[in-house]
Specification:
Shape of chain B: elongated
Radius of gyration of chain A: 20 Å
Number of domains of chain A: 1
Helix content of chain A: over 70%
Number of helices of chain A: 7
Distance between the termini of chain B: 38 Å
Number of domains of chain B: 1
Number of helices of chain B: 3
Largest sheet of chain B: none
Number of strands of chain A: 0
Largest sheet of chain A: none
Strand content of chain A: under 5%
Order of helices and strands of chain B: HHH
Oligomer: heterodimer
Structural class of chain B: mainly alpha
Order of helices and strands of chain A: HHHHHHH
Largest interface: A-B, 24 and 31 residues
Helix content of chain B: over 70%
Chain lengths: 221, 104
């Protein structure tokens, strides 16, 4: 099932590289928004600045309420992940565009980065004592708990990747199928549903990253 | 307008509901991914050390336990969030009723 008309095909970018092209599209959209707003920040926000402040302010409030004041140190990354995935997901709803998150490579890259980053934060905060996070609650159970904890930590990037990929790819396929069956009438209502689902997936990725960072920063149980 | 109403009816603007929804959505795959990772580690170790059924079985068991542990931790977090939310709601209700009492 292929997308009928794509901007990347029109620009001469092949099928295997289109997700890279659309990732750059998402980055350019975010950069443009940032540069547009940077020069003329107002005390009383209007328009686009208001919209972005609602999103970022709400996320910051949520992060600080969950992680505590320490959450402010990692908030730029968390907010960046949410906005980036949100824009990438919503690119799939635009005509001539495809969601880069519908390709497993984009998601695997982001999930591996999150995995490396939260372990780095844990090592930075605890030093060699970070190993206590993998040892479980009781001393005698350490030989059993260590492999279990290691496996459950390694399962994290896998579940992050597969969840985002499965949801977005599935939505793209459903949209294409509906479009071939009844071009406008069937796709229009699904747009609302998929808008919610895509926003929820971006939020889930953000929230899981936050939980992993929280787990790395707080005391071992 | 319509979109705003739709969002309100799905309670997507309510942050606690959103976080509960996303917590519940993650539980299923957390269980599966633990098992998959455990089995893959065991299988590749078996291929390397040529001990076929043993390490696959052991690591698959460990993966299943890890999957259960993930679900356990997730549901504990979900319950804690629920409790916090309930407490907040009750305290708000208490404030509301005390306001009414003072007014009367």
């Amino acid at each position: 099932m292929e997308h009928p008309v794509l901007l990347s095909t029109l620009l001469g970018i092949g099928e295997p590289y289109k997700h890279v092209f659309y990732t750059w599209c998402a980055m350019i959209i975010l950069f443009v928004v940032g540069f547009l707003l940077r020069g003329k920040m107002k005390t009383i926000p209007t328009g686009l600045q208001n919209f972005m402040e609602v999103i970022i302010g709400g996320l910051e409030e949520f992060t600080v309420a969950t992680v505590g004041e320490k959450g402010r140190t990692v908030f730029p990354l968390l907010c960046g992940i949410f906005l980036f995935i949100m824009v990438q997901n919503l690119l799939g709803l635009l005509p001539f565009c495809d969601a880069p998150t519908a390709n497993i490579n984009t998601n695997a890259a982001m999930a591996l980065f999150v995995f490396l980053y939260y372990n780095y934060v844990g090592l930075r905060s605890w030093g060699p004592g970070y190993i206590k996070h993998f040892m479980g609650p009781m001393k005698p159970l350490v030989p059993l708990m260590l492999p279990i904890e290691l496996i459950s930590h390694m399962a994290r990037p896998l579940s992050l990747t597969l969840r985002l990929f499965g949801n977005i790819r599935g939505e793209e396929i459903v949209l294409l199928l509906f479009f071939t069956m009844a071009p406008i009438a069937a796709t229009f209502p699904t747009y609302f549903l998929f808008f919610l689902a895509k926003a929820l997936q971006a939020f889930i990725f953000y929230m899981l990253t936050m939980i992993y960072l929280q787990g790395a920063m707080e005391h071992a149980h | 307008m319509l979109l705003g109403k739709l969002f309100k009816s799905f309670k997507i603007t309510d942050k606690s509901y959103l976080s509960a929804l996303s917590h519940a959505g993650t539980i299923g795959l957390h269980m599966v991914s633990g098992i998959v990772v455990g089995t893959l580690i065991g299988y590749s170790l078996d291929k390397w050390l040529d001990l076929y059924p043993w390490l696959t079985g052991i690591f698959m068991f460990l993966g299943i336990v890890a999957g259960f542990k993930n679900v356990y931790v997730d549901s504990k977090r979900l319950l804690a969030a629920q409790k916090e939310e309930d407490e907040k709601r009750f305290s708000l209700q208490a404030e509301d009723s005390s306001d009414k009492n003072t007014r009367v």
